[in-house]
Amino acid sequence: MDPVIVVGAGPVGLALSLCLATQGVAVVVLDEGAGTDDPRPARTAVLRPDTAALMARLGCSTLRDEGARWVGWRQLRRKQQMRQLPLGEADEVRGAGGAGGAEAGFGAGADASVGAGAGGTVGDGERAEPVHPSPLHLPQHALTRGLRDAAARHDLVRLVTNSRLDSLEQDARGVTVHTRGPGATWWRGSHVVGCDGARSTVRKLLGVRFPGRTAVERHAVAALRVELPWPGEAVLHRQPPWRGGGQEVSARPLADGVWRLDWLLPARGDLVTPEALVARVRDTLAGWCGATPPYDLLDTGVYTLHHRLARRWRVGRAFLAGDAAHLLGALGTQGLDEGLRDAENLGWKLAHAWHHGASETLLDSYQAERRTAVAARLRAADQSLTILRGGGGLRTYLPGTARGHDSLLADGHLGSGPLGAPPAYPHSPLAPPYAEAHTTVDTRTGAPVDDVVVTAPDGTTVRLRDRLGRGKALVVLVAPGTGVWDRRHWLTAGVMPRLAKAVAGLPSPAELLVTESYPGASAHSVLLVRPDGHLVAAFGGVRPDELYAAADAARGGAPETSSSRDRSDRSDRTANIN
């Protein structure tokens, strides 16, 4: 079968190619560049726990050596510390029982308002806050290099450099694209995905509009090696008290003692000269440390954030992902995070189509799920911008307003609440209709499942998240006590033989796993999980017919036949950028 063509070799395009290749799909990646990235320490990526785990599964080797996890989050306002949150890795969060903050957000009840200065700590009488999951922070060029190295090691991924797309044609059985450059040629594929950034050629060739807001936020940034009073903690300082401090400045640690500093600028302010940026660096360091400490300035820049959302993310056999489909980033939200979620969502659906055929429902669900999730994120950010950046008004003087603002900003930067929590798809076209056999667990339908410890039939004990992205649904039986049994016994005992037979008869490939417990699930509950880790349904016991129906819904129903595709797509669609 023809490969999937991915246009663009940034993090999203490379992640999508690896998602597909891991599931046995051949991929051609068209890179208009030379296959290298100039180091820019001030251009960084903040990965939430779900996207960091995805990058690790795809074999990105730079995460551990060149990434840094924050140990805490500190918010200051003028000379007062408003809150301090301890952060930890996923295992620590599970152990502390503090994982529930991600979806709900950091409400005002979590605030620790104290009178300490910039270097202060929470007082002895203050209530300790629960541990929240720590983001992973690394330079974007390091992330791209790690993904590119992983793609180069994979036999099913072909990286083609110096290849700029200039035309795209579609028919009922595939796509044909043409690239110009030293090796100008035509390429034939089963599908094409535009991961080619905000100025996407694929999007233009498809005639898809890209409306939105321009210059939502503007920042000056600097990467420098320096010692700050909060080792390993990320800091957000609003209305700093020194002259020229501006409205907001943040400091986020990277590996090897490097920090990224961001200053919020007026949206349409004056040009920021190198001299003015160095002055900001010195004044900020002096304000935090008492005097300007020795520092090594590595990189600087000024960037403007836009909010845009493509009207369509699918046109026939062509799709858009990442910055080609959406732009966001204000208030600490992460457009790259959303792009990587695009790749994971689309990857398993294209893999299913490549191996087994797919219904229009399955392919359409990519836009239905991901565009809806990103649109909700953009709405939340726009509404929060009005509150946080509007200024003035009665709300400025209301008690508790500052704490509410702090909570919104924490949500965006730490990946919680409407501004940052991993999305759920409760109204997906792939959601099965309700059945009496369904039961409830602490994970709602369509949301990402908890990363519990599971055991496979071969006796392997791993995290559930480690079994994702393999082109198979997961069927998880909650069976307390199985961890201490010999595998030879529990495989043939109780409900296991009946469940194993039901799993073998599902309409799409699935893997049977067992866990000792799952939050909110009773013994012998059965969970059906999509290849990207979202819950399809939970059942109160082994219900083969209902399990089959849910699995069929999760694949979008039976694949369309070639004759029905021919009737629905009789005419070719051709676009040329020239």
TrEMBL record:
One GO molecular-function entry: monooxygenase activity
Domain FAD-binding: 3-378
Record InterPro entries: FAD-bd (IPR002938), FAD/NAD-bd_sf (IPR036188), RIFMO-like (IPR050641)
Region (Disordered): 551-578
Gene3D superfamilies: 3.30.70.2450, FAD/NAD(P)-binding domain (3.50.50.60)
Keyword Flavoprotein in record: yes
SUPFAM superfamilies from the UniProt entry: FAD/NAD(P)-binding domain (SSF51905)
Cofactor(s) demanded: FAD
Biased composition (Basic and acidic residues): 563-578
Keywords, comma-separated and alphabetical: FAD, Flavoprotein, Monooxygenase, Oxidoreductase
Pfam families found in the cross-reference section: FAD_binding_3
Keyword Ubl conjugation part of the UniProt annotation: no
Descriptive protein name: FAD-dependent monooxygenase
Protein's organism: Streptomyces niveus
Lineage: Bacteria, Bacillati, Actinomycetota, Actinomycetes, Kitasatosporales
